[in-house]
Design a protein that fits this description.
alpha+beta; two-stranded antiparallel ribbon; 2 domains; 12 strands; 209 residues
């Protein structure tokens, strides 16, 4: 059985009227709990995984666990609460998103350092630090009487920036197959701790029964 059917309910009045309430009921899928923190701290429970183009939680779940209804565990352990923002976009979807978000996606957004090492392979400037376009550094590498001055700067466009963010989303962790059943059971039980129903008098007040 999937997470949705087993999760506790959240019930609240989604108006601000106490005498004429309008009650809304939904599943409380994201109640945080200590099981989540315990599993995140245990590196031996996870495998690193790179999401392939076109994959979604259900397809990964089927390939890894032999069933599609463990897709929710992938979202939980990677703390993805908004699928559309937290899951990597396809190349076409990314292009459409970037061109809709920015007037000129190919314009320069920022400048970053490129890596600089001396003759002994000591790092003088690490890569990826945001700097002005005219940033310079002078260092002595032991091969010249005077210092060596360099301008280790590369431009980053808005499109490149969004591409980086999207690439990072491809890197996720998966619960190892031998542990996924245990995690599922413990997580569902922990969701119900303190009560199976969450209620509130209004949108601004929600409490555990």
């Amino acid at each position: 059985m999937g997470l949705f059917k087993r999760a506790p309910e959240v019930v609240y009045n989604y108006t601000d009227k106490l005498l004429d309430p309008r009650i809304y009921s939904a599943k409380n899928l994201w109640r945080r709990n200590d099981v989540f923190d315990d599993y995140l701290a245990s590196l031996s429970v996870f495998n690193e995984y790179i999401i392939k183009p076109g994959e979604n939680p259900e397809s990964i779940s089927f390939n890894q666990y032999g069933r599609v209804d463990y897709g929710w565990t992938i979202l939980i352990v990677n703390d993805i609460t908004n699928f559309h923002e937290g899951w990597p976009r396809t190349s076409q979807a990314l292009r459409e998103y970037v061109y809709a978000k920015y007037e000129n996606p190919d314009a320069i957004m920022m400048y970053e350092t490129t890596k600089v090492v001396d003759a002994l392979q000591r790092v003088i400037v690490p890569a990826g630090k945001r700097v002005p376009s005219n940033y310079q550094v002078t260092y002595y590498d032991g091969t010249a009487s005077a210092g060596v001055t360099v301008n280790p700067v590369a431009s980053v466009t808005y499109y490149q920036y969004e591409q980086r963010l999207n690439d990072e989303k491809e890197k996720i962790r998966l619960i190892r197959p031998r542990y996924v059943n245990q995690f599922s059971d413990l997580y569902i039980k922990s969701l119900h701790r303190g009560g199976s129903v969450v209620t509130g008098l209004s949108r601004a007040e929600i409490k555990i029964d």
